[in-house]
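Obj: model holo form, ligand = flavin mononucleotide.
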Amino acid sequence: MGLKETQAYQFLKFTNLSLKNLGFREALVSPSPPFKEYQNTTKIKLSVEKFPPTPNFFEILSKRRSKRGYKKNPLSLREIALLCFSAQGVTGIAEPYLLRTAPSAGALYPIETYLAINYSYEIEPGIYHLEVKDFSLALLKKGYMGKILSELALGQAFLASASIIFIWSAVLSRTISKYGSRGLRYIFMDVAHICQNVLLASEALGLKACPVGAFFDEELNKFLELEEGESVIYIATVGK
Ligand SMILES: Cc1cc2nc3c(=O)[nH]c(=O)nc-3n(C[C@H](O)[C@H](O)[C@H](O)COP(=O)(O)O)c2cc1C
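Output (holo structure tokens):
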């Protein structure tokens, strides 16, 4: 099969913008709420009132490497809060938008952050959802999930020894309702900004991190009990 026959090539071409198709609209997709909030569950408040001193920004850039050798060491609540802030901390309000540390096409913020806590001093192991509006972690499932997540990531063992695992999903209709299929490009750009923030913040805090794109999509969606239209698109491990 030649490149032109691949779905990747055809998607890129189909979603090209040109003067000819600027007014063209695909079938309408209804928008969905701008962020998810879980009710009736334990919430752990996060806070980043004071930022810690860190190495020079350009040193951080030169030192960042994907690191997978973790020693099951716990992270502090403060470290976890700083990493969550780097991912999706709210840094401004432009009604009705909650502006964040990472940019987002059309300020539509299609990405949801889930966090598996494997080893932490203050937070018990489990799966949490990052509630962007009140900057807290909502408990979804109790217990150490590192082993299951490692299996869901094609058996990549380092997920089991990471202190925490970021799992990012996309709520497709938030962005697709405005941009059509081209919005899928933006969704992947959005998540990459978020992930890079976390990778650099990890380096700044003297932690090790690795992005992960290989996982069993449907099984992971089911594990997180995501609804139709929301799908996991990226993962990152952080540890010591
Ligand atoms: C989109 C993407 C997906 C990746 N998926 C994985 C993965 O599933 N497992 C893994 O060990 N590393 C993964 N990596 C890390 C790459 O292997 C790594 O970035 C690359 O080897 C370059 O090394 P560096 O990050 O240390 O500079 C991924 C990186 C990116 C950007």
